[in-house]
Design goal:
alpha/beta, Alpha-Beta Plaits, 6-stranded mixed β-sheet, 10 strands, disordered N terminus
Length: 312
């Protein structure tokens, strides 16, 4: 610090689902900021996540030292990589969002429609990153295009530095060169489509103290530190339908009743009817498509989900 004056820190929060590249998106954005000469920090929040489950990651950028860490409670920008999370208050996607916050949503819907429907206080921008990823990557991998959307909209770095950040971060996870090239094309598509709005000149919150503040985390008894579940069959009550990008559909005319889809479904979302034909429980199918890839007679195909959940 110079003269005891702290530099403002911009706080960015990423929300998505397991398998979409939330952690890598945060790393690409922070790497682009670093290459642009900023001080950066990035960290995901790990727990008992699985593919399709909500994930959150954090990035901080500043022109000076960053003397804080931990959960971003009041974000200057939120990157929502899966718009279905807006329907679930427990995902806390909009927590801490204020009028000056940027809310960047992967959605084919108009920004003004989402802002009105979910009562979003911040500046909402939408871009259909899913369609970009499916067209150019062939899979719902959103890390690089989400970073392109974020970096351009926040005006953190020019394209050449973002492209270098993508190469470095995807190289670090040993992605083959041809897939890195595809990701760069998807990133460029998102970067070109995003508006250069910029982050607020007055960040919502920054902590930059010239001295250490001692803090001891108290040890809490288990009954307070973690919830106790005393009801039965709670997983059956929790729908995972909006985790899907693709919906599996069974052509019973081609089905040989081999039972493989029933046996291999990791979620137990496929049952057998009285005639031993498979029936999919769409309330609990999360769209992993194991059944599609393992069906010997190719009786199961996939279609893109188009339904948008209603706010709770």
């Amino acid at each position: 610090m110079q003269g005891g004056t702290a530099q403002p820190v911009h706080h960015i929060r990423f929300h998505g689902r397991g398998g979409e590249g939330v952690k890598v998106a945060g790393r690409i954005v922070s790497r682009a900021g670093f290459l642009a000469g900023l001080a950066v920090q990035d960290s995901p929040l790990y727990g008992a996540e699985r593919r399709g489950a909500p994930i959150v990651a954090f990035t901080r950028v500043s022109s000076g030292p960053i003397l804080e860490r931990g959960y971003v409670e009041r974000p200057d920008a939120v990157v929502v990589m899966d718009d279905s999370l807006l329907c679930h208050p427990e995902a806390a996607v909009l927590d801490g969002v204020e009028a000056t916050s940027l809310v960047l949503v992967n959605s084919a819907r108009r920004a003004e429609d989402l802002k009105a429907e979910f009562v979003i206080r911040g500046r909402v921008v939408t871009l259909d990153l899913s369609s970009i990823a499916l067209e150019l990557l062939g899979h719902h991998l959103l890390s690089a295009p989400s970073a392109g959307f974020a970096v351009k909209t926040m005006r953190l770095a020019p394209w050449d530095l973002l492209a270098e950040a993508v190469r470095i971060e995807l190289g670090d996870i040993a992605l083959p060169a041809d897939l890195v090239a595809c990701n760069l094309r998807a990133t460029r598509r998102a970067f070109d489509a995003a508006p250069p709005l910029g982050l607020s000149e007055h960040p919502l919150r920054h902590v930059a103290l010239p001295f250490a503040v001692p803090f001891v985390l108290p040890r809490l008894p288990a009954r307070i530190a973690a919830p106790s579940i005393v009801a039965a069959a709670t997983s059956a009550l929790r729908s995972t339908a909006d985790w899907r990008v693709w919906r599996p559909l069974i052509d019973l005319g081609r089905c040989s009743r081999c039972f493989l889809c029933f046996a291999l479904c990791p979620e137990g979302a496929i049952a057998l009817d009285a005639d031993n034909y498979p029936v999919i429980d769409y309330d609990h199918c999360k769209g992993c498509l194991v059944c599609v890839s393992e069906c010997p007679p190719h009786a199961i195909h996939q279609v893109r989900e188009t339904e948008v959940c209603a706010p709770v």
